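Figure 2 data, in text form.
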Amino acid sequence: QVQLVESGGGLVQFGGSLRLSCAASGSIFSMVLMGWFRQAPGNQRELVATITSNGAANYGDSVKGRFTISRDGAENTAYLQMHSLKPEDTAVYYCYAYRPSPSPYNGWGQGTQVTVSS
């Protein structure tokens, strides 16, 4: 059974950096798409960044130029390097992964809290 295991969240000061990791454990097939979404209290879940199996990345407008997504395809692991963090980046960050075949998968991690203090 595939499980998305996230790590790397925490408390950081304004302007600081954090790196999130998401590993798709239990999956022997590569995920076509992996990414991160975030949700702050009272807000809808929004796109942070996604990356395909061939390395094509897509970013939400609010993080362009500050966050970088990457992945290790062999390990089915995605990383989100976050720089120049702002208080408005404070949210629960959720890993997402998708694979249409073989063995279709479409799911979320449990979420990791990122808090940026001003």
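Caption note: The chain has a mean pLDDT of 95.
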